[in-house]
Amino acid sequence: MFKAVIGAEKLKDSIESISTLVEEAKFKLTPEGISVRAVDPATVAMVSFDLAKDAFSSFEATEGDLGIDLTKLNDIMEMADKDDEIELELDETAHKLIVKMRGLSYTMSLLDPSSIRKEPKVPSLDLPVRVVIRGEDLKRAVKAAEKISDYMHMGVNGDIFFMEAEGDTDNVRLQMTKDQLIDIKPGEAKSLFSLDYLSDISKILGKASEVTLELGKDYPLKIRFKIAEGHGEVSYMLAPRVETE
Prior knowledge:
The chain is an alpha+beta fold. It has helices at about 10-20, 70-75, 135-145, 195-205; strands at about 1-5, 25-30, 35-40, 45-50, 60, 65-70, 85-90, 95-100, 105-110, 130-135, 150-160, 160-165, 170-175, 185, 185-195, 210-215, 220-225, 230-240. The chain folds into two domains: about 1-115, Box (Proliferating Cell Nuclear Antigen), CATH 3.70.10; about 130-240, Proliferating Cell Nuclear Antigen, CATH 3.70.10. Strand 2 and strand 3 form a beta hairpin.
């Protein structure tokens, strides 16, 4: 059983944060909320998504899984204004999700959860460096970097955070000191990441007032931020590109 009402903006942000990596996902329902764990087809990036029942105007659910085509749900949500309330209800007999908004009612076929790629195990990484930055600053640096390269270094030198990209002839670097960041756990870290992934992820991060980055030397990047007025959390893990001499 699943029946809920949620603001359109919260639902849009939730779906976009997952669909930036995968086109379909298994939503795990509990009486306390919804969660998703998914990895992209190339096994380079992973998303962990948790939305508490407090994010909803009303929420009733029993334990279960919903297989959802995110492209289809994103298309439906394009019909909603950001202030709309969206009603969601599971038709268990027909195995369909009913989505209602301002008089419109969509009945959407669900996917068989067993047909969706198995949930990844989230690795437990104790990364030595942590940076808390405004989402818009991160998005700006990524946008600048993708004009000249396909990859970007991200790291910390002491208490200075930097993002840098090098093209064949050009270079761009954003450097931020402790005073310009929200917070920093100083140290030494530097890894190279694909801008294809960072570009897609940064479109979501740009809306966040605070983004936490956890880094190491040639280690994955962990990105965490809150959504739905603090009632949800999204985290991404992005594998580094290991440089060869």
